[in-house]
Design a protein that fits this description.
Helix content is 42%, strand content 16%. A 6-stranded mixed beta sheet has the order 4-5-13-10-11-12, sandwiched between helices. The two termini are 34 Å apart. The chain has a domain of 203 residues: Rossmann fold, CATH 3.40.50.1100. It is α/β, with parallel strands linked by helices. The protein has 19 helices and 14 strands. 50% of the residues are buried. Its EC number is 4.2.3.1.
């Protein structure tokens, strides 16, 4: 498998090169040259396959022969070491819980998969040293810190916006030490992401072998399609159209879901549910892509003004807006609406969601009015404990601390404050 830049002005590269580089030399995101649908027999038999078997069949064409099959299966086994339960919140509406991993966020899957791929590529070169540079609006930092902790030949530098991630999220990315370092940026997530992209293109940093563990990196992004296969496996017997609503910030999850659909997974429709950072809903309404600076909300992991992965989605539909709209809808909701949904889900259904999942729920409910016979799935991307400052007062509950969270709460925060790209560059050396 070869990967090309979506800016179409850089050489095509292998899976290994795309993982190590992260971003193409022309600033473009990498995208696979081909998407080969899986055999119909795979979907006919999917309920008899394990999660690991499903994931291997889904991902193997993207890796090719660059990682031996047995090694790839081992990487998948280590990646999928936790559950992905579907919880029926109300009749025909399910929460797909993606927060049962080590940092209690969906990004554990991509971070674990990528770290193990990078470790494999470095195994024969004792002098190899990669620096993983990552921007986070919330959960990416913790997942990457956990996934790469102690990985030989890899240093991790995480940029996060000061005061704009939850206390638990901050602790998960600032307390681990070892090969993990955190930079607290005076700005918003988009500022962090812009610094990361600028560093990739800075030739004076070439000696550092920089790569990204944001969803711009194919090894972080592609495994996110696994969730959709797992949900289909669980719901297939109901034999109804399937609608997925993804709380969307950088649009990695929903982009991976569309990849799954292109591979043949029977998904009727996608909903990108956003907070007031509404670049994509405005694009669908007006046909003009007009990113704006991000706005802080209670669903902070979605506070993205210029979602990186949307260009990949446009590529899969050849920039044909009308074809795109047949498969894809996007709705925007403000904090007040999100809080109302949180309370309703808890008071009427007995289910504790968190702000991102509540936004996903709202978008799903709205879209199901157009497809009344469908089953709806909204993605719960993080455990409610990670947003206890919002969830506990809103619902009048006290959330018990899960073991994964308790382990970081008493550790000392260590971060370096920066404001400019020059300060980042000086830190990297």
């Amino acid at each position: 498998m070869k990967y090309y830049s979506l800016n179409h002005n850089a050489p095509n590269v292998s899976f290994q090169e795309a993982v190590i580089q992260g971003l193409a030399t022309d600033k473009g995101l990498y995208f696979p040259e081909t998407l080969t649908p899986l055999a119909p027999s795979f979907f006919e038999n999917i309920e008899n396959l394990s999660h690991e078997e499903i994931a291997f069949e889904a991902i193997k064409q993207f890796v090719g022969d660059e990682i031996p099959a047995d090694t790839l299966k081992q990487i998948i086994a280590e990646t999928l070491c936790f559950d992905f339960p579907l919880v029926e919140v109300e009749n025909g509406i399910y929460s797909l819980e993606l927060f049962h991993g080590p940092t209690m966020a969906f990004k554990d899957v991509g971070a674990r998969f990528m770290s193990r791929c990078l470790g494999y590529f470095n195994k024969d070169d004792k002098d190899a040293k990669n620096t993983v540079l990552v921007a986070t609006s919330g959960d990416t930092g913790g997942a990457v810190a956990s996934g790469f902790l102690g990985v030989t030949g890899v240093d991790v530098v995480i940029l996060y916006p000061s005061g704009k991630v939850s206390d638990i999220q901050e602790r998960q990315l600032t307390t681990l030490g070892q090969n993990i370092r955190a930079l607290e940026v005076d700005g918003v997530f988009d500022d962090c992401q812009d610094m990361v992209k600028k560093a990739f293109l800075d030739e004076s940093l070439n000696h550092m072998r920089l790569t990204s563990a944001n969803s711009i990196n194919i090894a972080r992004w592609l495994p996110q399609m696994f969730y959709f296969f797992f949900a289909y496996k669980a719901l297939k017997s109901q034999n109804k159209p399937l609608v997925f609503s993804c709380p969307s910030g950088n649009f990695g999850n929903i982009c991976a879901g569309i990849i799954a659909k292109k591979l043949g997974l029977p998904i009727e429709h996608f909903v990108a549910s956003t907070n007031v950072n509404d670049t994509v809903p405005r694009f669908l309404e007006k046909g003009i892509y007009d990113p704006k600076p991000s706005i802080a909300t209670i669903s902070n992991a979605m506070d993205v003004g210029n979602p990186s992965n949307f260009v990949r989605i446009q590529e899969m539909y050849q920039n044909d807006l009308e074809q795109f709209k047949k498969d894809f809808t996007s709705y925007t909701f403000n904090d007040a609406e999100t809080l109302v949904a949180l309370k309703a889900i808890h008071n009427e259904r007995g289910y504790i969601a968190e702000p991102h999942g509540a936004v996903g729920y709202l978008g799903l409910k709205k879209e199901l009015q157009n497809i009344p016979n469908a089953i709806g799935v909204f993605l719960e991307t993080a455990h409610p404990i990670k947003f206890l400052d919002v969830v506990e007062p809103a619902l009048g509950v006290t959330l018990p601390l899960p073991e994964q969270i308790e382990s970081v709460m008493n550790k000392e925060k260590v971060s370096v404050k920066i404001s400019t790209y020059e300060e980042l560059k000086a830190f990297l050396g």
